[in-house]
Amino acid sequence: PESPALYELELCLSRDGRVIDRVRQRTAFRRFRFDAEQGFFLNGAPYKLRGTNRHQDRMGRGNALTEDDHFEDVRLMKEAGCNWLRLAHYQQDDYMLQLCDELGILVWEEIPYVNGTSQAPEFEQNLRSMMTEMIAQHRNHPSIIVWGMGNEVRMKDRGDGKADCYDIVKRLNDLVHRLDPARRTIFVIGDADYGWKLGVMTIPDLVGYNLYRGWYFGSLDSLTDRLQDLHGHHPGKPLVLSEFGAGSDIRVHSAEPARYDFSEEYQVGFLESHLDQTEKLPFLVGVNWWCFADFGSAARGDTMPHINQKGLVTIDRKVRKDAYHLLTARWTDTPVLEIQSKRWTERTGEPRQRIRVITNQTDIRLAHNGRDLGPADEGGCVWNVELDDGTHTFTATARHNGKTIEDRCSFTFKPSIHDFDVSVPDGGQGRSAWLLDGNPATHWAIEGDATIGIDLRRHRLLDGVELGFYRGESRVYRAMVEVSDDGRLWKPALDPSTDRLSGGESERRFETQIQTRHLRLRIDGNNENHWSAVTGFRPLFADRKRDKSEYETIAPE
After folding, report:
1. Which pTM value belongs to this model?
2. Which of 386, 496, 532, 546 lies 20 to 30 A from 291 at CA?
3. Residues of the chain scoring pLDDT < 50
4. Is residue 342 classed exposed, middle or buried when 0-12, 13-18 and 19+ CB atoms within 10 A define those classes?
5. Tell me, what DSSP letter sits at residue 77?
6. 378 labelled catalytic
7. 215, 246 Cβ separation under 8 angstroms
8. Is-contact 74 91, C-beta < 8 A?
9. For 128-146, b where at least 16 C-beta lie within 10 A, e where not — what string?
């Protein structure tokens, strides 16, 4: 794929020595094979398949992409070092395949047999029709090496130890081999064991698993054990990590990234951990990051509603996320020197901060406000720097082929014990910091109504709030907790008709988790007097998302 050679074949139809029709078809010649223990081989040599999944979707256009849009996607993939692509989860534009032929990306194309199944004859006939038409239309593209038969299809035991979709998948597999004996078949499920227990994963030539360890559940370092476990359960079957990914919002950043916080920093750490682990597994055929670009998803309710944010680039393709630069540094020889978190222009926290450079270069230098910081403290690309209140400029430099390359980053920093801001009205008694100290003996108070605000500085997932009132055991306060995405439009988070806003400090859980940036407590005295007195008002941050949409849910075992 690094240097594809295409040939043009011409087929002529003649009558009485005169050509009455002709067809031109581009093609290429390659040999490939999959091995359950040694991975993938291209033209006789070992070749690790590294790529992404791709939805045919873009901001403002939906599925109706132009040829320029398709070209930009393939160009961005190639620049990141991708050599293989899963077209998920449906047949895509023929022009996309032409580009993969020309630019050298191996392709896995599949039909939209996703999530549900049915025993209705019309359902299976539709699957067979889609598969037949896809192969007939695209089989002459040399970039295609795999036909996909389904993704995360929910299944159950039909009564004899086989899945209810077993026969459908078996007949699909036979159909593909009859229509195109040269290519391989694959079937994909989520992070569950029912596929091999119910026999379905014994059918295809390859097996694919969508594993989101460290995102939806589990720890990052559990990936290796899980892949080795799956490898053992599929003797003789080449294994593909068909999906892995973590969401990120380019507005969200964290010095202490955590699962499901949607920070770019967590997405980078997630990707780095997965690459480190998968590159050590020789049996693993290939990996496909989910997803190449952010895409529309009606059921999503994350920091950007209705958008799946696991992309390496934004839905409009205007921004390459930090994870994209990490992938480029790992998968290409193109010199990469990128100071991480450059979009985080207003920072706060402890004075000691980590500055990281994403790079594939050696002997990196970093300067802080013009002062050389010397070699990195950690792993060749991380510096621990003491920051004071003000503006900070960092310059990273490296030498490549005798030339100096550099990258710059500037941001303002304000030391703080909390990574969110609390505001109270003027004229109150006590300190706003007492709302955060967890001490019920201290309180902030004002005569009359008041609004206490919290700016989380970025969208974050909340389970609820910690809330307490002065003498709350005997008083009932007229109060309401509200949330807002933009600080202008507010909605209730705790309903005073069901949540009695009184009592000492305690956790007040929201009915459902809320992703928000702004939080406020509106209070207007109590049943004894007109004083508004609060001992504590703090956000309860969630460490994981409790309720997921059907699209987000990994099928249970």
Report:
1. 0.78
2. 546
3. 499, 549-557
4. middle
5. H
6. no
7. yes
8. no
9. bebbeebbeebeebbbbbb
Q: How many CA atoms lie within 13 A of 17 on its CB side?
A: 0
Task: Report the alpha-carbon distance of residue 299 to residue 307 in Å, rounded.
Answer: 8
Residues 236 and 196: beta-carbon distance below 8 Å = no
pLDDT tens for each residue of 295-352: 999 988 788 889 999 999 999 999 999 999 999 999 999 999 999 999 999 998 788 8
* Residue closest to 290 by CA, chosen among 212, 187, 192: 212
**DSSP code for 306:** T
Q: What is the pLDDT of residues 358-380, one digit of tens each?
A: 999 988 999 999 999 988 877 67
Residue bearing tokens 């074949």: 9
For 482, the token pair is 């509200």
pLDDT tens profile 415-444:
876 778 899 998 887 778 778 877 777 788
The CATH H-level superfamily of 421-541 is: Galactose-binding domain-like (2.60.120.260)
Separation CA 83–CA 100 (nearest Å): 9
**Active-site pick, 109, 110, 124, 152:** 152
Residue given tokens 């956000």 in the structure block: 539
Query: Which residue type occupies 405?
Result: I
CATH number of 346-415: 2.60.40.10
Domain positions in the chain are 28-334, 346-415, 421-541
